[in-house]
Each structure stands twice: as structure tokens, then as C-alpha cells.
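[job 0412] stage=complex_fold ligand=fe (ii) ion status=START
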Amino acid sequence: MPIKTLQDLFIHELSDINSAEKQLSKALPRMARAAEDPALIAAFEQHFEETQGQLERIDQVVEAGNFKLKRIKCAAMEGLVEEAKEIIDEIPKGPVRDVALVGAAQRVEHYEIAGYGTLVALAKTLGHDVAASTLHATLEEEKATDIKLTELAKTTINRKALLVK
Ligand SMILES: [Fe+2]
Ligand SMILES: [Fe+2]
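[job 0412] stage=complex_fold status=DONE, emitting C-alpha cells
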């Protein structure tokens, strides 16, 4: 279906982020298994749980608005997940891989922050006020996850990696 109106674009963006979340939902358990630092494993596991809730929020928005999502694959998330796989293939398990995994996860969070930021703005413009606040809740979770990863990197993970000879 061509994208002509702002409403069409909103549905396209919502379909894209839905695909992104589904792909991430499959990748996060792999990233948790690939990590070594217990706090990083816990962060990935917690964000996996949050991601299930975020997918439920998308379903709520779709149901409440009687929207029809498009079957599209988010190519950006496919690439980000692919890069996370490359890290796991190329770096042995340990602190250096953990640093790389944090970087991969933060790329994902920034993509999601941009996606949900756009969606919240579009929902507000279109007068979908409940959808806007529902999607805003997810936007805040993505931001919090990004901050948490930064903190983990700065407080422990990066320094542990510096000791690897
Ligand atoms: Fe998400
Ligand atoms: Fe996320």
C-alpha cells in the first residue's frame, strides 16, 4: 500500500517498529548468553522482558485505533542484529566482547529512541492521544535502557576490558 497521508506514514512507522521489536526480542536472549558480566546479562534479560511489554503496547495501540499493521521487515534492525552476531562470532567470550555488546545494544536503543520519538510526535499530530502516551511510555524505557548501558560501561565493563592482555 502506498504511503500518501500522514496517517499512512504513522501506520508504516508503527509496522516498522513492531518488526524491529520482534527481531530484537529474538536477539536479546542470544546477547545475554553471549555476555560474561553478570550485570550486563541481567540488563539484557531485563530488557528482553521490557521488550515483551513494548510489543504488547503496540498491540494495544493497534487494537484501540483499529489500525492494520503492514507486514514489513525493519531492515535497520536486521542490520543491527547482524552486527551483534558478527561481534559474537569474532570476539571470544569475555570483557572485550562485553564492551562490543554494549555498543551494539546502544545502537539498537538509539534506533528505537528515534523510531518511538517519531511515532509519539506523529500520534500527537494526528490526535491519537492515547497512542501517543502509550508509545511515550516505551520511549522512556528505551532511554532508560540506553542510560543504564552507559553507566555499566563507565563504571565496570570498560575497565574490566582494559585488563585483558
Ligand atoms: Fe524496544
Ligand atoms: Fe530497546
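Residues 34 and 88 are 7 Å apart (CA to CA).
[job 0412] exit 0
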